[in-house]
Amino acid sequence: MAMENIITTAIIRQFADKLSAGTDLDVAFVGGGPSALVAAAKLAKKGLKTAIFEKSLAPGGGVWGGGMLFNEIVVQENVLGILEQIGISYQAVPDAKGYYTVDSVEMASGLIFNAVKAGAKIFNAMSVEDIVFKEGRVNGLVINWAPVRKLAMPVDPLTVIAKAVVDATGHPCEIIRIACEKAQVKIATETGGVLGERPMWVQHGEQQTVDSTAEYYPGLFACGMSATNVTGGYRMGPIFGGMILSGLKAADLIAKSLASLEKR
Ligand code: 48F
């Protein structure tokens, strides 16, 4: 076989195997921002079949750009342990006890590497355009190549089945909105719908992100900024402790929920 054919068929076979395995999951994340990367790593380490579908070429979401493209982010003391486990370094902010800066490229690449090494599969350049909804439960995702969506090509999507779906799409909370609008479900908020994000208030935003991380409908969870948006929380800008804690909480909630599903 020509060397060109060897390379081509190796890639096609390997990717086909990976994608086939990724169509029947325990947990499917929509979006590969920091909260999803942390949650997916924790779930994969527990032995759950976990994948992230990310529409951009590079997962990492809002981490890469730091604050206004100054590629540094801020984290708080209570997440240093997890950064140390991954091997991500940080620097104390002078005169602000408990706050640290992290190089955003190191943070994004560290979180991605950690998730992949834990066993989570990441499918990049793949856009989630719908959910699988049946028997009163969110059962999976409808996926397509991101460029296909961008170019509005009339190409039918494929489907992923998952016991738990996580909206980790950040500010737009796209998947919860799809559930409300297309499946016409009432989610677990005061109004039964998305409350929408409030303006900047750093301390409140950080805590609300963690508090809002929840299962909003059977089979449908939200973490990170998506959860904040669903519950009408405040935004918080380039401080990321809340995203990491939200990811850890999401992993615990999902593991517990799947364990109770197994028992039924
Ligand atoms: O927004 P994002 O980084 O997720 P997050 O974990 O973190 C938020 C912070 O980055 C930042 C912040 C920090 O304090 O406020 O905003 O909540 O990443 C969301 C990811 O989801 C992808 C998108 O490209 C981004 O990488 N995404 C959004 N919609 C889709 C999607 C979709 N329909 N299909 C696939 N990926």
Describe this structure in words.
The protein is of the alpha/beta class and 264 residues long. It has one domain: FAD/NAD(P)-binding domain (3-Layer(bba) Sandwich), CATH 3.50.50.60. The chain is built from nine helices and 13 strands. Strands 1, 2, 6, 7, 8, 9, 11 and 12 form an eight-stranded mixed sheet that branches. A three-stranded antiparallel sheet has the order 3-5-4. Strand 4 and strand 5 form a beta hairpin. The structure holds ligand 48F.
Name its key features.
264 residues, alpha/beta, FAD/NAD(P)-binding domain, eight-stranded mixed β-sheet, three-stranded antiparallel β-sheet, 9 helices, 13 strands, binds ligand 48F
Give the topology, please.
Elements (H helix, E strand, L loop, with lengths): L2 H19 L2 E7 L3 H12 L4 E5 L17 E5 L3 H7 L4 E2 L6 E5 H15 L2 E4 L1 E9 L2 E9 H5 L7 E10 L6 H8 L16 E3 L1 H11 L1 E4 L2 E3 L1 H7 L3 E2 L5 H23 L1
Parallel strand pairs: 1-2, 1-9, 2-6, 9-12, 10-13
Antiparallel strand pairs: 3-5, 4-5, 7-8, 8-9, 11-12
Helix pairs in contact: 2-4, 2-9, 7-8, 7-9
The structure holds ligand 48F.
The site of ligand 48F has 27 residues, from helix 2, strand 2, strand 7 and helix 8.
